[in-house]
Amino acid sequence: xxxxxxxxxxxxxxxxxxxxxxxxxxxxxxxxxxxxxxxxxxxxxxxxxxxxxxxxxxxxxxxxxxxxxxxxxxxxxxxxxxxxxxxxxxxxxxxxxxxxxxxxxxxxxxxxxxxxxxxxxxxxxxxxxxxxxxxxxxxxxxxxxxxxxxxxxxxxxxxxxxxxxxxxxxxxxxxxxxxxxxxxxxxxxxxxxxxxxxxxxxxxxxxxxxxxxxxxxxxxxxxxxxxxxxxxxxxxxxxxxxxxx
Amino acid sequence: xxxxxxxxxxxxxxxxxxxxxxxxxxxxxxxxxxxxxxxxxxxxxxxxxxxxxxxxxxxxxxxxxxxxxxxxxxxxxxxxxxxxxxxxxxxxxxxxxxxxxxxxxxxxxxxxxxxxxxxxxxxxxxxxxxxxxxxxxxxxxxxxxxxxxxxxxxxxxxxxxxxxxxxxxxxxxxxxxxxxxxxxxxxxxxxxxxxxxxxxxxxxxxxxxxxxxxxxxxxxxxxxxxxxxxxxxxxxxxxxxxxxxxxxxxxxxxxxxxxxxxxxxxxxxxxxxxxxxxxxxxxxxxxxxxxxxxxxxxxxxxxxxxxxxxxxxxxxxxxxxx
Lengths: 245, 322
Known about the structure:
heterodimer, A: 6 helices, B: 322 residues, 16 strands
């Protein structure tokens, strides 16, 4: 079984968010870039599946300019066998999914994080499945290989399910898929330098959405403090002033 | 050219979120001079379907085919697109929840639409079609233009109050035009959460962090949640330590919630945690460290020991309720 893990290159989750050019673009000056946290968990689970057998090859893929290569190298250091970068800026979910569809055809399991932590789109995995006309399972919190099939744990609104799906399939994964993201070891980092990172040319793709402008949320009023021994007053304020109890 | 809204049911019943979606679609329809058609998939009694009209549907298309019980993403997306085409709908609205997030991207590709997810308000404008959403997990907002004739959006929970209208609707059985080969997933097992308030539905959420010190100290918070009919949540270190299930983890990499009241006990308020709760209407923080960042996000706060404050609050809530 061959696995493709989709990797988004996102600002570190502690980044202070700023915008530039009249609030029409994210200001990436001084930003540290990381593997999108959910993609990192997906990759960790893929590596675990390979370690227990049943998975022969893991590829990681990203749509982006050469500036995303350090993030792909990190994914290789975590344990992917090779990497593909489609050489075009990621602007819109449909554009990204269209690029990925050209390289995703030969994989049995395609894994994507449930969203990217920058623009919170939750779109690329599902779009890719529709473009490839294959199954997709979302909100996946567990996966194992069962012969030629895959067994998924999926969260539904109000519970959970165990599903069996025939490959190929896109799994859109969330928290729980792996316990903790794997940190690359020194040996992995050394080996990653020698692994193949293939750059492919983009196809022409339509941008179906575009950002008009950004804004920061309004500043919150100061917190109203209550004394430690006066929880009763807190409950009264929540009941009478905030009217939420 | 009506507005199509997919209204999910849970065991044959609609939830407040379904009515939020219908109300939102009705407000959009009013601005566009058209009407709302809801699509329902699954066995739902007519009396339940009629509730949708209270919030503004003119027509309900109902699919009762049992094959859809597997919530198969491919088949459901195909059915939604078939309904949109039958109604001539150019705007399709889904919920920004597990199922809506799974279906909307497939629907958008299939009907060649632009997609925007997690929309928080009525469109900023219609020509061009611009919507507002949160980005960077609540740390900013973006206005996004959809450049296509067809538009698919998912609406964030608790971002639009349901409005009751006087309306009447017609209910029609709809043939989704799917075949067995569209159903690609087999359900082996379903576990429904019973007897607990679901975190994503909860109007009040009681949450604990590292300050709870161990997995054995949650009795007070559980009692408080019971008293308030609240959902239970926790911060990331708590679920990483295994003190509570990861399904209760709220924050950037866990669940994103927007209750009326979020009560945070022993949570310092790392930026990743705040990303998951910042849309709450009122935030209350109890923490022994007065410098904890949670107090910058909170509306009310107590600097103090959670194990002193929790029993006092329980007493005060009991008194208020009696």
